[in-house]
Amino acid sequence: MDPDKTRTMVTSVFEPGKAISHYRLEKILGRGGMGTVWKAEDIRLKRPVALKVITGLGEPSAEANLRFQIEAQAAAALDHPCVCTVYEIDHQDEIWFLAMAYVEGESLSRKIRSGQLDIGFAVKIASEVADGLAAAHTRQITHRDIKSSNIMVTSQNAAKILDFGLARVGWTPGATATGVILGTPYYMSPEQAQGHSLDHRTDLWSLGVVLYEMLAGKLPFQGDYSEALFRAIIASPPPGLIEARPEIPGELAQIVYKALAKSPTDRFQTAIEMRDALYASGGQPSAQAIASSATGPVRHRPQAASIPSIAVLPFLNLTSDPGNEYFSDGLTDELITALGHINGARVVSRTSAFAFKGRTENLQEIGALLRVGSVLEGSVRKTGNRLRINVRLVKVEDGFPLWSDRYDDELDDIFRVQEDIADKVVSALKLTLLEPRANLFAKRPPNMEVYKLYLQGQYFIHQLNPASLAKGRDCFDQALKLDPGYAPAYAGLARYYTKVAFFGMVAPTEVLAEARAAASTALELDDRLAEAYAMLGEVVLLLEWEWAAAEFYFQEAIRLAPGDAGIRHPYAMLLMRQGRFDESWLQIKDALDADPLSKPLNNSLAFLYFYARRYDQALDACHKVLDMDPNYFETYGNQGLTYSVLGRHEEAIASLDQCVRLSRHNSLTVGFYAYACGIAGRREEALKLIDELLSRAVSNYVAPTCLAVSYIGVGDYDRGLEYLTKACDLHDPIALFLGVLHAFDPLRSDARFAELLGRVGLPPTFHPSTLHMFSGTLPPAD
């Protein structure tokens, strides 16, 4: 299109009061190289928007249009609180425009010009920008123009990243060429200033410049002309921050210097690494900055060693009837949940606490293993409707009792007893509750029989075998017959349905719709029930492959129950399956802080290292789990797959044979055993195992991925793709691992496999080899 014609059309069409499409223009907010940004009103939805109108002046309009479309695609691909939301891209009379959320506030550059910024505020803004960049980098988007004028500070003092007009996105690799210098000179990285190839670390340099600018009130690199500026960026160190502002903590200054390292390999390797360094720095956000911030991304919890800690050991059942075990276990569960609302304390999760059920270690040994400073222990004797509960809180270091009491009450008084115990523990530890005491036991129904059935259902679900799962479902059903408005029982039903689907006991399509209905009903009844949000997250991922929606539900669950390892775990698995390994590791780390002896969590850590291609660390993590439990079959499978990738086939087959036997010939374990035999050259054994699965499938459900990996192992890729297609049709949970599972690597160049990736909501070009740069900060296995 002729630039003169463009100029004429922009002048005639775009002026205050004029309408374009369903937007009425109000005033110009700013101008840039690619276009003009207007404040406008969305006439249909009656809301303010920011309208970015492309002019294409000064460059070929075809390239301008391409960049504009890339900007829209890049921003729209991100659903993150620190990235400005894009509503749509459209055009009128050959003029393209982008409709975005209108952000009340001012640009960071204007805030910097208005006076010296609070150090805590600067840390907060930089942390939020890093969080937004982490989301972009995970989706193969490099911004390439991070600067203070492209960061809005909302009226709630939250950061919003704007203007992806120069972004490089993984799905359009030819949009810009190496050797072309794009960006804003003062914020360019050395490699950007020299026209070299770029990756996500160029954004971290630019964020370092912004952080320096916020702290010092000036830019780190200056020059009277472009060549002088570029020489400074490429060769000169930044001026000392502490000399410019002595009160800046040394640790924070080091973060800035690391971000401004000349070589990308010497910088932070991921935005998450930089964000977490900022969180841990001496320049923590001020209380005022934290209080005024909008709801942001999920944070990880403080280091376990730095905060008070407590473990609630399983209460002893002193009743002669072992059938009352569910009640003592349930009381323990409820106290663990309630004490999780203590402000500034770490409470060990159920799995690790219950690892000591029936064991004889002394409290000092238990405290050392769980890394806690105090232990709550007790006993329950239930006779008819009478309860006798003895409880004491002990200081681990010297065994000194901090508090003890005995309760003789009616069963109907159990909630009052639980509240009193929680109060006394909080008082003894000199801590405070995050919520009013009345909210701690929100699961209480008016009918005590309903509560007993709920506790029984939870007791059976935790045992995770087909018979106990069915018993758990029956308990929840009975509870709901007595009280159809009891939200936790609906959440329990949702957990039952997802468990039987995930472990391949039934076809997922037969039960996942029921799981979604149960979780949704639970939330309708109680919108503060963290377990219901978590279950809805699992279900929408399994049933609809809606990754963003699932992530939202998990984050809501974590916001409501930040110390619940059982909620962080499935969220970590979602991140892992997307290749967001650093983010997944942070969630697993936080979960392990609360649940250090959890075998599923430690096994997931081993899988994380495996998917991230950190094979030695994967094997170390597997060995740790097997030291905890030499009969944990899932870890033998993990170990076997790792040995297979390393070409240690005999060890792989031995591990997977053990996995099959311990799992009682679970179909999925048989499938991976067949895969390992096939790639080891033991084709006859693999074909025999495939025949076993086919025979089993005649009368029982066999997950299609079991056969898919088996056929891939013997080199029959067409049959492998055929069964993977069936897996997607049936929403087989293992299909969510298409992006990261090594067994699928031989299919990644096949267009049919790319189509399957798209079906499950992953980028069709997703390949593990592109994820290595996102696993740079994974630490060694413990």
Mean pLDDT: 81
- How widely separated are the two ends? 61 Å
What's the total helix number?
Answer: 32
Count of individual beta strands: 19
Strand order of the largest sheet: 1-2-3-4-6-5
In angstroms, what is the radius of gyration?
A: 29 Å
Structural class determined from secondary elements: alpha+beta
What does the largest sheet look like? 6 strands, antiparallel
Oligomer: single chain
Low confidence ranges? 1-12, 56-60, 169-181, 282-306, 772-776
Helix coverage percent: 40-55%
A few lines on this structure:
This protein has 782 residues and is an alpha+beta fold. It has 32 helices and 19 strands.
Notable characteristics:
single chain, 782 residues, alpha+beta, six-stranded antiparallel β-sheet, six-stranded mixed β-sheet, 32 helices, 50% helix, disordered N terminus
How would you describe this protein?
The chain is α+β, with helices and mostly antiparallel strands and 782 residues long. The chain is built from 32 helices and 19 strands. The strands form five sheets. The chain has a six-stranded antiparallel beta sheet. Strand 9 (151-154) and strand 10 (159-161) form a beta hairpin. It is globular and about 85 Å long. Residues 1-12, 56-60, 169-181, 282-306 and 772-776 have low confidence and may be disordered.
